[in-house]
Amino acid sequence: ISLSRSIRGFSDINVGVFQYTKRLEALIFPRGCSVSYTWLAWGSGVKVVSLPPACTFNEKMYVFDECNNLYSIVIPQGVTTIGEYCFLDCENLSDVALPNSVTSLKSGAFYGCDMLKKLDFSHFTEIPYLSTYPNSPFPTETPKIVVPDALYDEWVATTGWKNYASKIVKASEQ
User: Rounded distance, CA 121 to CA 117, Å?
Assistant: First the structure.
Protein backbone atom coordinates (compact mmCIF):
# COMPACT_ATOMS: atom_id res chain seq x y z
CA ILE A 1 0.00 0.00 0.00
CA SER A 2 1.40 3.33 -1.01
CA LEU A 3 -0.13 6.02 1.14
CA SER A 4 -1.02 9.33 -0.43
CA ARG A 5 0.16 12.72 0.75
CA SER A 6 -3.48 13.72 0.90
CA ILE A 7 -3.73 11.87 4.19
CA ARG A 8 -2.18 14.66 6.22
CA GLY A 9 -0.35 13.22 9.19
CA PHE A 10 -2.66 10.21 8.88
CA SER A 11 -5.36 12.10 10.75
CA ASP A 12 -7.92 10.17 8.71
CA ILE A 13 -6.56 6.73 9.67
CA ASN A 14 -7.72 5.09 12.88
CA VAL A 15 -5.68 3.17 15.40
CA GLY A 16 -4.91 -0.35 14.17
CA VAL A 17 -6.00 0.30 10.59
CA PHE A 18 -3.64 -2.37 9.19
CA GLN A 19 -3.84 -4.63 12.23
CA TYR A 20 -3.80 -8.35 11.32
CA THR A 21 -3.83 -7.70 7.57
CA LYS A 22 -1.83 -10.82 6.72
CA ARG A 23 -1.74 -10.12 2.97
CA LEU A 24 -0.24 -6.67 3.46
CA GLU A 25 3.35 -6.89 2.21
CA ALA A 26 4.53 -3.28 1.98
CA LEU A 27 3.77 0.08 3.57
CA ILE A 28 5.24 3.00 1.64
CA PHE A 29 4.85 6.28 3.46
CA PRO A 30 4.92 9.65 1.64
CA ARG A 31 7.52 12.32 2.22
CA GLY A 32 6.66 14.45 5.23
CA CYS A 33 4.33 11.91 6.78
CA SER A 34 3.78 11.30 10.46
CA VAL A 35 3.71 7.71 11.71
CA SER A 36 1.86 8.26 14.93
CA TYR A 37 -0.68 5.53 15.45
CA THR A 38 -0.63 2.81 18.05
CA TRP A 39 -1.07 -0.68 16.59
CA LEU A 40 -0.71 0.69 13.04
CA ALA A 41 0.35 -2.64 11.50
CA TRP A 42 0.21 -4.96 14.50
CA GLY A 43 0.34 -8.61 13.43
CA SER A 44 0.27 -7.75 9.73
CA GLY A 45 2.19 -9.59 7.01
CA VAL A 46 4.23 -6.49 6.14
CA LYS A 47 7.68 -7.29 4.73
CA VAL A 48 8.76 -3.81 3.64
CA VAL A 49 8.28 -0.49 5.39
CA SER A 50 9.53 2.57 3.56
CA LEU A 51 9.90 5.65 5.75
CA PRO A 52 11.29 8.56 3.69
CA PRO A 53 13.45 11.40 4.99
CA ALA A 54 11.42 14.09 6.74
CA CYS A 55 9.03 11.45 8.05
CA THR A 56 8.30 11.79 11.73
CA PHE A 57 8.00 8.62 13.74
CA ASN A 58 6.19 9.56 16.90
CA GLU A 59 6.67 7.66 20.12
CA LYS A 60 3.52 5.59 19.97
CA MET A 61 3.38 2.03 21.27
CA TYR A 62 3.14 -1.22 19.33
CA VAL A 63 3.36 0.40 15.87
CA PHE A 64 4.82 -2.69 14.17
CA ASP A 65 4.14 -5.24 16.92
CA GLU A 66 4.30 -8.89 15.74
CA CYS A 67 5.20 -8.04 12.12
CA ASN A 68 7.02 -11.35 11.71
CA ASN A 69 7.73 -10.92 7.99
CA LEU A 70 9.65 -7.70 8.64
CA TYR A 71 13.38 -8.47 8.35
CA SER A 72 14.90 -5.00 8.19
CA ILE A 73 14.00 -1.36 8.56
CA VAL A 74 15.76 1.95 8.01
CA ILE A 75 14.59 4.64 10.41
CA PRO A 76 15.00 8.01 8.67
CA GLN A 77 17.13 10.90 9.90
CA GLY A 78 15.06 13.25 12.02
CA VAL A 79 13.33 10.55 14.07
CA THR A 80 14.10 11.18 17.72
CA THR A 81 12.25 8.44 19.60
CA ILE A 82 11.65 4.74 19.12
CA GLY A 83 8.43 4.26 21.10
CA GLU A 84 7.43 1.69 23.68
CA TYR A 85 7.17 -1.81 22.21
CA CYS A 86 7.38 -0.30 18.72
CA PHE A 87 8.81 -3.49 17.20
CA LEU A 88 7.67 -5.90 19.94
CA ASP A 89 7.91 -9.54 18.90
CA CYS A 90 9.01 -8.85 15.32
CA GLU A 91 10.75 -12.18 15.62
CA ASN A 92 12.57 -12.04 12.26
CA LEU A 93 13.73 -8.42 12.45
CA SER A 94 17.49 -8.72 12.09
CA ASP A 95 18.66 -5.40 10.66
CA VAL A 96 17.77 -1.96 12.03
CA ALA A 97 19.44 1.20 10.78
CA LEU A 98 19.12 3.97 13.36
CA PRO A 99 19.92 7.60 12.54
CA ASN A 100 22.02 9.66 14.94
CA SER A 101 18.97 11.88 15.49
CA VAL A 102 17.52 9.21 17.83
CA THR A 103 17.70 10.59 21.37
CA SER A 104 15.52 8.02 23.14
CA LEU A 105 14.81 4.28 23.06
CA LYS A 106 11.69 3.46 25.05
CA SER A 107 10.91 0.38 27.10
CA GLY A 108 10.44 -2.78 25.01
CA ALA A 109 11.28 -1.04 21.70
CA PHE A 110 12.93 -4.18 20.29
CA TYR A 111 11.76 -6.68 22.89
CA GLY A 112 11.14 -10.10 21.35
CA CYS A 113 13.18 -9.31 18.21
CA ASP A 114 15.33 -12.36 18.82
CA MET A 115 17.05 -12.29 15.41
CA LEU A 116 18.45 -8.81 16.14
CA LYS A 117 22.14 -9.45 16.86
CA LYS A 118 23.60 -5.94 16.58
CA LEU A 119 22.56 -2.31 16.98
CA ASP A 120 25.04 0.12 15.47
CA PHE A 121 25.36 3.48 17.22
CA SER A 122 28.92 4.05 15.95
CA HIS A 123 27.88 7.17 14.00
CA PHE A 124 26.19 8.81 17.00
CA THR A 125 27.66 11.94 18.56
CA GLU A 126 25.50 11.80 21.71
CA ILE A 127 24.27 8.96 23.90
CA PRO A 128 20.51 8.41 23.55
CA TYR A 129 18.33 8.05 26.63
CA LEU A 130 17.48 4.41 27.34
CA SER A 131 14.27 3.57 29.17
CA THR A 132 14.50 0.22 30.93
CA TYR A 133 11.26 0.48 32.91
CA PRO A 134 9.18 -1.62 32.99
CA ASN A 135 11.07 -3.75 30.43
CA SER A 136 14.36 -3.83 28.60
CA PRO A 137 14.18 -2.25 25.15
CA PHE A 138 16.13 -5.24 23.81
CA PRO A 139 15.38 -8.88 22.99
CA THR A 140 15.91 -11.56 25.63
CA GLU A 141 19.47 -11.99 24.32
CA THR A 142 20.74 -8.41 24.21
CA PRO A 143 22.35 -7.67 20.84
CA LYS A 144 25.88 -6.35 20.45
CA ILE A 145 25.76 -2.57 20.89
CA VAL A 146 28.39 -0.82 18.76
CA VAL A 147 29.33 2.67 19.94
CA PRO A 148 31.85 5.34 18.93
CA ASP A 149 35.28 4.80 20.48
CA ALA A 150 35.29 8.37 21.81
CA LEU A 151 32.04 7.80 23.76
CA TYR A 152 32.67 4.24 24.96
CA ASP A 153 33.65 5.01 28.60
CA GLU A 154 30.77 7.44 29.04
CA TRP A 155 28.30 5.08 27.29
CA VAL A 156 29.01 2.10 29.59
CA ALA A 157 28.68 4.36 32.66
CA THR A 158 25.41 6.03 31.64
CA THR A 159 22.24 5.16 33.54
CA GLY A 160 20.27 2.54 31.65
CA TRP A 161 23.13 1.64 29.32
CA LYS A 162 25.42 0.46 32.12
CA ASN A 163 23.08 -2.52 32.61
CA TYR A 164 24.26 -3.70 29.18
CA ALA A 165 27.96 -2.84 29.54
CA SER A 166 29.03 -6.39 28.69
CA LYS A 167 27.32 -6.05 25.27
CA ILE A 168 28.72 -2.60 24.44
CA VAL A 169 31.75 -2.64 22.14
CA LYS A 170 33.90 0.06 20.56
CA ALA A 171 33.39 0.51 16.82
CA SER A 172 37.11 -0.15 16.22
CA GLU A 173 36.85 -3.56 17.96
CA GLN A 174 33.99 -5.08 16.04
Answer: 13
Answer whether residue 1 shows pLDDT above 90: no
Please count the helices (runs of H) and the strands (runs of E) in the chain. 1, 12
Integer Cα distance of 138 and 65 in angstroms = 14
> Residue 28 in contact with residue 2, Cβ under 8 Å?
yes
Mean pLDDT for all residues in the chain: 85
pLDDT category, 37, cuts 50, 70, 90? low
Sheet hosting strand 168-170, strand order edge to edge: 118-120, 144-147, 168-170
Question: What is the distance between the alpha carbons of residues 94 and 19, in angstroms, rounded to a whole number?
Answer: 22
Amino acid residing at 30: P
CA distance 121 to 96: 11
